[in-house]
Amino acid sequence: MTEYEKMMQGELFNGGDSEIAAVRDKAFGLLKQINNHGTFTKSKKLFRQLLGHLGHSSIITPTFNCEFGQQIQIGDRCFLNMNVLMLDGAEITLGDHVLVGPNVQFYTASHSMDFHSRRRWETFCKPITVGNDVWIGGNSIINQGVTIGDRAIIAANSVVNSNVPADTVVGGTPARILRTLPLESNSDTEN
């Protein structure tokens, strides 16, 4: 099994591996072009080359940063504000109609508590999944292995270490449930 395959399976892998470095270098080259264009409209073709999927009518504002790109799946009609960072050693999946505030960070990667493993740059990654109609407030951090349920709201400056149920508001460091959202229909909402 290659180091890249180990990474995608959530196993310990060597982040300095040449195959992983080649994928990372390709992403960095595309990101340099994307972030120098200054607008999403001019960069949309490059985003489609970088990401695993970019949904219909989704917008990503520069600057945007990721490690690999091809593990990122973004649904329809999403909006990612400035300075979003995605460490995508595992899949990061955003559903449809997701709003991501400025400076939000997604971390799929982590390291062992054993310093010998860290000296070898061994890393393991777990996916992040964000449901439909989720709003993630600015400066929040979404950590590895987290699933955020549909329609949840993450308050600004939160650190999310565990799964977030649908229809809840969470906030804090670490994030905890602050309230449950009512299941109301809003006729003003565009589908």
TrEMBL record:
One of its GO terms (molecular function) is acyltransferase activity. Keywords: Acyltransferase, Repeat, Transferase. Residues 4-56 form the Maltose/galactoside acetyltransferase domain. Its EC number is 2.3.1.-. Gene3D superfamilies: Hexapeptide repeat proteins (2.160.10.10). SUPFAM superfamilies: Trimeric LpxA-like enzymes (SSF51161). Belongs to the transferase hexapeptide repeat family. This is Sugar O-acetyltransferase. It comes from Corallincola platygyrae.
